[in-house]
Amino acid sequence: MIFNLFKTSPSPSTPRTQATRRRFLRTVTLALGVIGTSLAGFLPVLAKWIPPRLRPPGALAETPFLAACIKCGQCVQVCPVQAIRLADIEDGVGIGVPHIDARAQACDFSCDALQCILACPTGALSHKLNKKEEVRMGLARVARPEACLAVHGLGFRGPARGPEYTGLLRYNEVDRWTPIPVRDHPYNLELCDLCVRQCPIENAISLQPIDATGKTKIPVIQQACVGCGTCEMICPVEPTVIVIDERKMWEKAA
Known about the structure:
Blueprint: H1 2-5, H2 15-47, H3 62-68, H4 74-78, E1 84-86, E2 98-100, H5 115-119, E3 138-142, E4 156-158, E5 168-171, E6 175-181, E7 187-189, H6 194-197, E8 205-209, E9 217-221, H7 230-234, E10 242-246
Antiparallel strand pairs: 1-2, 3-10, 4-7, 5-6, 8-9
């Protein structure tokens, strides 16, 4: 009897308790992961850690846009050229926020009514008084003029981005309504003018002569540019000659 009074209780490390402990740890780990992922979407709004990105057409100013966007993905689903992407966990902060990588796939600004704006349920994307000319994404910039083929008087032949490139573009001379792979539309140009030739916005970019002979030219961005990124996407030079400065607006020269 005395011996039984001082007998220690059985060790809790039985198979059953071990299994219970493992389930508890898995549950805690999963909960922390979900909470961490959720916070990752809010941290950029709170701390403004989101890196500058090209937003879909009609995006509100960055802070109101981040507040209004619910990351539903409706804009992604309706984009005819699959230009809009939702930031993934590998992109760091800002998970689920829509953006466009123009070099990979530009916005097809020639699509009718800009379906992404029509699909947005919260007004994060807006037609802004229904005037299409007011819907801007940014402004193109000739970042590497020294690499431009036209500056050197050179032409271009073949697929604009090579046979492995998967980007899409609408070609009026092929099919106004259906985007086709850029690699399926080779070029044969005596002087490269792809940025001007494929720009969907009239008078947004032009080639202007550099010398009196007119054999060498340079791209010049005009006020009509909306920052769709087609010029950045189609440029055959790597790295690209033209880039899009997100959200930048046209400023008149002093």
